Amino acid sequence: MLLATAVGCASWQPANVPLAHFDPNRGYRPNLPDEFRESGHVVVTLAFSGGGTRAAAFAYGVMEELRDTEVVVRGERKRLIDEVDTISGVSGGSFPAAYYGLYGDRLFEDFEPDFLKRNVQGALVGQLFRPKNFFRLMTPATSRSELASQYYDKHLFHGATFRDLREAKGPRIYINATDLSHGNRFTFSQGQFDVICSDLDEFRISRAVASSSAVPGLLSPISLENHAGSCGFQPAEPFVEAMASRSSDPRRYRAAKSYFDYLDAEARPYLHLVDGGISDNLGLRASLETGAAVGGYENLRKFMGVAVPDHIVLVIVNAETDPNPDIDKSSASPGLTVLMNAVSGGQIRRYNFETMMLAQEGMRGIAQDLSKPGRPVKSYFVEVSFDVISDPERRRYLKGLPTSFVLDDEEVDELREAGRRLLRASPEFQKLLAELR
User: Fold this and answer.
1) DSSP letters of 372-427?
2) d(CA 307, CA 309)
3) How many CB atoms lie within 10 A of CB 268?
């Protein structure tokens, strides 16, 4: 009787609240010059891939190295991490990105005990078997990802919303998920939320991270309600122009269409968000697709209100794993779990390669578009990846670490050290340091 009453009284509550009135000059968005971090001489973007705690620890090591690396910018000695303007994170990589955006250097004090060296996976599984959660999960008001979000909120983000992230005035943080029905990238920014007439300021960081890391089958989607058409939203002119470019520039059209698909709230009253690795496991597609939608990187720079820098730096931290060779050692048909892991892993690896190539071409294009006679803009494409490790046993060991939310302390330390060492050894990174020192 009590269970029936609990189920009957519970009702689903969307994670997002409606936006009363569209205002292009408010909210967590990158195109506000007075709020965007002063880029000055150097613009640095970090991209953290998915991969559970393996990816988070690897990215953390890179950030430690950036903290300990000093450069000279406009005659002033600075830590290179203080020149970071943007961090894009996917799944496991979204955790250190969001934490640093909120708390800055506290990352180097608290993130290790609070996340990297904590059995988060065991805690999440344990929540499923608590009696009160068992009954809650039988109602539409609670899901596995909602329980995960509550855990992240309690132990990592402490009720912080995107308003808090905006007011922290750190680097711009992009947390990326995947729209389950269409397979499109969904990035948590007010620009994306404007389309569905929702207020990102009120959205909890923990829910964004839970969306980004909601692996299908293990965790449930985070669902949003589409309020499109209720706030007076008007798309920016470059996006309107992009919708007319289907035949002349299909890539630009396709990038813009992923936004316009949400404008019909009757056809799509709800959105269901899952792991960002499905659509973009490197966290690079947001800038690539936005650049395409507005008609090029010079237009994107003007749209974002960013001054022309002397150096643009992209550091990609890729915790990608290898294929499973054991499948080929037996004539037996692989089981469902092995099959699903192999299919998803294969898709991610192939998509990663294409995204990496596009990003590298994009960096060259940005530098060329922004360069002026007598004032060249230099670009640096820094890849931090297990693939560049020369020792095959070491490379195999790190790539073989599981995609989970629990690792041994020693494994975490080895990933951190690998991130530091590989960044330091990167020829592109050393070329940047030579320029700035």
Assistant:
1) BTTBPPEEEEEEEEGGG-S-HHHHHHHHTS-SSS---HHHHHHHHHHHHHHHHH-H
2) 6
3) 16
pTM of the model: 0.89
Task: Compute the average pLDDT of residues 394-422.
Answer: 95
Tell which wins on pLDDT, 74 or 275: 275
Q: What is the pLDDT of residue 301?
A: 67
Alpha-carbon gap, residue 126 to 149, rounded angstroms: 14
d(CA 426, CA 358): 20
Report residue 287's pLDDT band, with 50, 70 and 90 as the boundaries. Answer: confident
Question: CA 56 to CA 116: how far, in whole Å?
Answer: 7
Cα–Cα distances in angstroms (integers) from residue 211 to residues 49, 104, 259, 373, 426, in the given order: 15, 23, 18, 45, 32
Residue 326, pLDDT score: 62
Q: Which residues of 168-203 are buried (b: 16+ CB within 10 A; e: fewer)?
A: eebbbbbbbbbbbeeebbbbbbbbbbbbbbbbbbeb
DSSP reduced 3-state for 220: coil
Six token digits for residue 95? 């955790």
Question: What gap in Å lies between CA 117 and CA 415, rounded to an integer?
Answer: 12
Q: Which residues, other chains included, contact 17 with Cβ-Cβ below 8 Å and sequence gap of 6+?
A: 198, 199, 202, 203
Q: Which residues pair with 172 in a beta bridge?
A: 86
Q: What is the mean pLDDT of the chain?
A: 85
* Digit-coded pLDDT (tens) for 22-80: 999 899 986 544 443 444 588 899 999 999 999 999 999 999 999 999 998 878 899 99
Element (H, E) at 436: helix 427-436
Rounded Cα distance between 318 and 337, Å, is 24
The structure tokens 């830590």 sit at: 79
Averaged pLDDT for residues 424-437: 94
- DSSP class per residue in 350-366: HHHHHHHHHHHHHHHHH
Query: What integer is the mean pLDDT of 235-252?
Result: 88
State the Cα–Cα distance between residues 261 and 271, nearest whole angstrom: 11
Dig out the tokens for 10 from the structure. Answer: 């519970």
